[in-house]
Design a protein that fits this description.
Elements lengths: L1 H31 L9 H4 L11 H8 L14 H11 L19 E4 L6 E2 L3 E7 L14 E9 L5 E7 L1 E4 L4 E7 L4 E11 L1 H10 L8 E6 L5 E5 L10 E3 L10 E3 L11 E6 L20 E2 L1 E3 L2 E5 L3 H7 L24 E4 L2 E4 L11 H5 L10 H14 L25 E3 L2
């Protein structure tokens, strides 16, 4: 008897709350003229709503229970990701998505637009990537991360030591355009990998930039020795403004909290720390190396035969001589070869920005009595260790203040601006 009475009481309370919620929703929508019918309904569209509002309580709940992806300040650097996250936040894209609705490399297709007249050195090869889910259906939105490169190959398909990276355009509807300049004669082959599905990208944002992850930290040290948190996006902190160390011209964002005085000095050292845990990537089917994580996609007509011409040799002859200050940021230039900064030619890097000054000196002779500054990311750090070990170089901490008792330092030299929004 007691349990039956308790169940009846719970049902009555639930019913009252539901009714109150519907009444409140109706009143709010009447006062503000906010439509709560977020999904198209053919029957509803035929009804004039000048004096009444059709209430979709389920969609209203979804509106106020949106998936939030943290700070917005970094998203302007990544328009494709921003568009994807916006679809989820506006409830136009179901999240989390069933694994069969995510992008699968097995069904995704690549087709090369072959030309009747064939290709010659100096032309551009263009291909279409059609992203499909695990059911073989074309994706209706973008956000997938594909990696494409054009490589010189033998008639049997063996990869040679000449190649160039491709440009990829996300059209936001499941179609992507990949293109690459043809800079050498002979057989070439397009290779495209699905690195991450759009759903995996969103999951990574939730795990990192949205600050839901508590196990990976980027800690930077200021010249005073004060340590602060940094990331591609950080939540606002009333007592600590954000310092903007981003590089818009390179399409990358990076923010750090200010020091205790509210200033943004140069960063002298940055390190990554990990808490004890299992990698997030290894705990979800969104990162399956057999279906959707760094998997080659199907190809149609991806082998191209290229006739020779003087295009590349003429292009390289007219390049300016490389100078120390001639480094250019990504997409800061464009020539007939596109946006590529260079390519590998018979195993050697060939710049498309300037003519390299190569000498026959040994590394020891070339670097003797010189101070070497290694500025970059973790890849540059690996080069630092390799150079130091191979050439038996000495650290020179007096040239720049680094982290005490450390032989690796990073010191961006750009002046930072306070971010107050």
């Amino acid at each position: 008897m007691g349990s039956r009475s308790m169940s009846s009481r719970k049902y009555a309370i639930f019913s009252c709350l539901t009714v109150l919620g519907l009444i409140a929703t109706y009143l709010v929508s009447e006062k503000t003229n906010i439509s709560t019918n977020f999904e198209p309904n053919s029957r509803v569209s035929q009804v004039k709503q000048s004096e009444s509002v059709v209430v979709n309580f389920q969609n209203l709940l979804q509106q106020y229970l949106k998936v939030q992806f943290g700070s917005q300040i970094w998203r302007t650097f990544y328009p494709e990701v921003d568009a994807l996250l916006g679809l989820i936040e506006d409830n136009k894209l179901k999240w989390p998505a069933p694994i069969t609705k995510t992008t699968f490399a097995k069904f995704t297709e690549l087709s090369v637009k072959n030309r009747a007249e064939g290709y010659a050195v100096g032309d551009t090869v263009v291909a279409t990537i059609e992203a499909k889910n695990g059911l073989g259906e074309r994706k209706q939105h973008g956000g997938d991360y594909f990696y494409c490169r054009l490589m010189s190959t033998t008639e049997k398909g063996d990869i040679l030591a000449t190649g160039v990276a491709c440009d990829i355009i996300d059209h936001g509807n499941g179609f992507y355009t990949a293109s690459a300049p043809l800079l050498w004669p002979g057989n070439s082959t397009l290779f495209v990998d699905l690195v991450h599905s759009s759903e995996a990208v969103a999951a990574l944002v939730l795990e990192s930039a949205a600050s839901s992850a508590k196990d990976i930290h980027f800690i930077s040290t200021y010249p005073s020795g004060e340590e602060v948190d940094c990331n591609v996006g950080l939540p606002p902190n009333p007592s600590r403004p954000l310092c903007n160390l981003s590089h818009p011209e390179k399409g990358s964002s990076w923010f750090c909290y200010s020091d205790s005085a509210g200033n943004c000095p140069n960063v002298t050292y940055t390190e990554t720390t990990y808490d004890n845990r299992v990698s997030f990537v290894g705990t979800t089917p969104l990162f399956n190396p057999e279906t959707n994580f760094k998997v080659a996609i199907q190809m149609q007509g991806n082998v191209i035969q290229v006739k020779n011409s003087t295009y590349t040799s003429d292009l390289l002859k007219n390049l300016p001589r490389c100078e120390t200050e001639s480094g250019m940021p990504e997409r800061s230039f464009e020539n007939k070869a596109g946006y590529q900064s260079g390519f590998y030619l018979n195993g050697q890097w060939q710049s498309l920005q300037c003519e390299p000054r190569l000498t026959a000196l040994s590394p020891e002779q070339c670097l003797q009595n010189k101070v070497i500054y290694c500025l970059g990311d973790s890849t540059m750090r690996q080069w630092y260790f390799a150079l130091k070990s191979h050439l038996q170089l000495n650290d020179n901490p007096t040239k720049i203040q680094g982290r005490p008792k450390q032989d690796v330092w990073q010191a961006p030299v750009l002046d930072t601006d306070l971010v107050t929004t």
